[in-house]
Specification:
The model has no long low-confidence stretch (mean pLDDT 86). The protein is an alpha+beta fold and 308 residues long. The protein has a 7-stranded mixed sheet with strand order 2-1-3-7-6-5-4, with helices on both faces. Helices cover 62% and strands 15% of the residues.
Length: 308
């Protein structure tokens, strides 16, 4: 889907491309890609790089074109190994052409357009647009981190009532998501620090960059905190599981010992040897009594040693 936005005074949609407008491309089709390449002569590998989900945050120049790849948060609609992940957002610019390309429909871009329209003011230039996208990504990282924290607390609440595999697997998936987040945020921070010296930054842009740095730092530190908490939680419940397993095995071993002694006694008296009780009418009862006494004494010793 391709949308043309007039960014002069307010963000308004227009029917066709105009000089210095913003072209927003979301989930581009093959036809959209061919049109971009043929009409604007964009290097063909720009779009293929943006489509690569593992592409790192970076920038490069080619034949006067500038490509900026920003990692933004994304929530998968279907159940997956990592429900929260990051995807590349490409920003392509040359003179009066500014294009953003994302191969995923994200809430961040929808909110970004809606927020700019509510502001009632457009962008001063393409540099302002780029850094506001950086700011929006940092804000959305914080929003997603709050959701992840809620899921962590919910899983911990479930585990407090009983350790189960589903909650542990959920925590493991969230740990993977936090790993993607921290890697992408650090990449965006490095990219931002380089772009400050590559783009034509004015005083207003400098203030905006400072806001972006603050939000990025907060997102990175929050991700580190949640990651440490989650790792500590996983270690704690792993220790609890091991302790419960050890307790269960100890109890079963103690019960086996108590039950083994009557078996040993009955085996001794049941041997085809002279033991003085062959003709005793109370031999069976005596064997039972000895088994009960020995088992009771063993049970008491194990209880005294807190092995049962």
């Amino acid at each position: 889907m391709k949308t043309f936005w007039n960014i002069d005074k307010s963000l308004t949609a227009i029917n066709e491309w105009q000089s210095n407008c913003w072209i927003q491309v979301t989930c581009p089709t093959d036809e959209d890609q061919r049109e971009l390449e043929e009409r604007f002569n964009i290097p063909d590998y720009f779009l293929s790089d943006i489509s690569d989900t593992d592409e790192r945050a970076r920038y490069e120049y080619d034949d006067g074109w500038m490509l900026i790849i920003l990692r933004i948060p994304y929530v998968k609609e279907v159940r997956s190994r990592t429900p929260y992940t990051t995807v590349p957002l490409g920003i392509i610019h040359k003179r009066d052409v500014t294009i953003t390309v994302c191969y995923y429909e994200t809430n961040m871009m929808i909110d970004f357009v809606s927020y700019q329209q509510k502001r009632g003011s457009g962008f001063t230039d393409y540099v302002d647009l780029i850094f506001r996208l950086f700011l929006s990504s940092a804000v959305w990282y914080l929003k997603r981190l709050k959701q992840i924290n809620s899921l962590i607390e919910k899983a911990k609440h479930n585990l407090d009532h009983g350790v189960n595999n589903e909650s542990l697997i959920g925590l493991s998936r969230l740990q993977d998501s936090l790993t993607y987040f921290i890697t992408s945020i650090r990449g965006n921070e490095n990219l931002l620090s380089k772009l400050k010296f590559k783009l034509q930054v004015d005083e207003l842009d400098a203030d905006l960059i400072e806001d972006v740095n603050i939000e990025m730092t907060q997102a990175r530190e929050t991700t580190n905190i949640y990651s440490d908490i989650l790792e500590s939680t996983m270690d704690t419940y792993s220790s609890i599981i091991n302790n419960n397993m050890n307790t269960t095995m100890r109890t079963l071993t103690s019960i086996s010992i108590v039950m083994m002694l009557p078996t040993l006694i009955s085996s001794l008296f049941g041997m085809n040897l002279i033991n003085g009780m062959e003709t005793n009418h109370y031999g069976f009862l005596i064997a039972i009594l000895i088994s009960v006494i020995v088992s009771a004494v063993t049970w008491w010793i194990l209880r005294f040693k807190r092995l049962l």
